[in-house]
Amino acid sequence: MNTYKIGNKVNCIIRSYSLDPIGSYVFTYKNEPYTVLKDITAQITYTSQHRDLTSSQTVLSFDHDFISDIYLSDVKINDKILNLIYEPNTTTKLANTFKNYMSDDNATIYLDNTTDTIYQVFIYNQAGVLEEAYGTLSTITPLVVQQANSNYLICYSYECATSVNLNRMTNYYVTLDLEVLGNENDQTQTMWIHLDKCALSADKRLDFNDTLNTIDLHFKSIQSDDISYLTIHSVE
Fold first, then answer.
1. To which H or E segment does residue 84 belong?
2. What confidence tens digit (pLDDT) does each residue in 156-206 have?
3. Out of 2.30.110, 3.10.260, 2.60.98, 2.60.300, which CATH number does the structure's domain 2-89+165-235 have?
4. CA gap 78, 58 in Å, rounded
5. Nearest to 17 by CA among 232, 224, 231, 230
6. pTM above the 0.85 mark?
């Protein structure tokens, strides 16, 4: 197996291979762009097949190299990427979080009202003692607690519009177009690699750090009647 690393700067268009929807996104045309990935890294792996057939009169031999795997790294996580690798979650869509609040002179806390209703609410006073709990609580009405001018930790959940199921995955066929930007002998060189039919593999690792949330996408190249190819444009 030979491995070829490509480019120091890669962009990628992920396209529809068929009219099958991806998540809630419905395609109108085959080869329609689904999403664009910018400033990623990529790796293409080839697999070789070799056969020798010997008879009493002749020797037949062939070698065939074909693309087997495509790895796209440092892909920024967004709604379209999540829907590509996971099935949409149609049941529970809760974000579970916490926040510190200070009660005022009247022992009142004004909750953030980015959402009208929060769920599974647990209210801890400054000593860390659970003071009150609610299954459902409105953020429109001020919250009255027991202690004035005191710090409170409130753990709660709220409903989100986007949610995916981390334990399930739907495989999609897509077309990949890679734009590889680089330099050769002090000349700008751009390569375009067209990979006609690819299936997303089951690599679901999520990487989180202080500056960026990314994921690595692993595609399997599917042999088809259509041709994958590379084109090069050099600028003097």
1. helix 79-85
2. 999 887 777 777 667 789 999 999 876 555 566 788 889 999 998 755 666
3. 2.30.110
4. 58
5. 224
6. no
